[in-house]
Design goal:
522 residues, mainly alpha, Growth Hormone, Chain: A, two-stranded antiparallel ribbon, globular
Amino acid sequence: MFTKSTVLSKTIDFKMSKMIQTEDKVPLLGSTSTSSMKEPPKGWGYRHLLAFLAFLGFFNVYCMRVNLSVAMVDMVKPQHKDDQNSTDNECPDHNLNSTKSNDGEFEWSTDLQDYILGSFFYGYILTQIPGGWMAEKFGAKWLFGLGVLCTAVLTLVTPIAARFHVGVFIAVRVLEGLGEGVTFPAMHAMWGKWGPLYERSKLTGFSYAGAQLGTVFALPISGWLCDQKSFAGGWPSVFYVFGGIACLWFIVWTLLAYNTPADHPKISREEREYIESTVGVKEDISTPWGAIVTCPAVWAVCIAHLSNNWGFYTMLTTLPSYMKNVLKFDIKTNGLLSALPYLGCWIGQNTSGIIADYLRSNGYLSTVTTRRMFTFFGLAVPGVLMILIQFAGCNQTAAVAMLVLCLTAGGFTMGGFQVNHIDLSPNFAGVLMGMSNTWATIPGFLGPAVVGWLTHKHDTRAQWQIVFYIAAAVYLSGAVLYCLLARGSVQDWNEPVRGVTFKHGSKKSHVPEHQRFPVAIE
């Protein structure tokens, strides 16, 4: 027999459950002409074409970013360590009988090499927030395309700059970072307008997974090109090939990409209405900087992003050196095995996006629970593996297997914090990505510097294990803090204050009642 209070409690529980299930089924941008979500049109749509073009864009971006990590090994004359305490021959060298020699072309110290590898990120960090703001204000299509083109042109002139003077070479790398820094914020801003609610994770994940596949492709191909001195010209061809391919991509992007569904001349009415029924139509709203900076949920994303990138960038820029100097791979094998962890990351990103959207669309988990679960898994598992890697010893297969598992698990953050920006504020997703990626860029130059400081005199397994311990601490701290602070619903500062007249550019506007956000329960 039910009491009145029991019935009331069950009624409240039922309503709460329904609100959780419909948490995301509200218009995400400030204005929309539909009050309910449309059914997705069947077959291939222009949102899928955009994802494919973006995938190729990030593929090119990361080919141009990581090629130097492999080319540097062939560009520089071997370093002879004078410190008798160095035990860099702890692991057996299986290439002693190799007839291949590497005289190199430049006499750059280890410290200078670390500075060159990290110089890209000094420029990259500067254009993150401006890139997000410009994408929201002026449109993401040209910003993303020109960011890639700028990097491509500078990649083509890299060999000339390196041979002219090391200072010019470093300046080119910094400028590459400036150009490429707008790419992720611009694409996040674009998906804030193109990404339907229950396709957001997988479309965004597929786009950004191009970065991982680009790494998988660039590392072994760069090693092969460096090895083909008589055929391809050696290390300079690495920059010519990838820079040229990116220029061709830019032409295709300008012809086929559009800022919003409403701008696309050939999109079907069904697909446009389907997208706009959950993301709405973009309004020109002033950026609420104060509310963004003081929002704990935004800082949760920033912390998780920094933690993830500490491990990712440390391995991205220094893994080829670790494999060559400690595990004793030759450059050709170096490129191939260095690529395997990023293949795992590519698989993890695509898999997590599909699973995350499935869990949310079927009401199994709320958005905030989904984001926390995938982020915790994607940060905690690599953190534990970084600690355990010491037990691999000089076993090359075991070491590579752990690194593969580490980045595969890290790829699952794509179903977590990496799309959480759009959950919190579709209107300002580009700005939020710029903010979090600014913090996440710090490991790009600080990580290699730490590695260089720790391994300068003792390039040994023991010193590298300290590098892995630091990465583990950062990973695990980020996992805990994100879970404590994360949110999954649209924040109230995403749109103008409800029911209040506000300045809309040079005009004044008023948000109609039917276009305001309901208070969502996570």
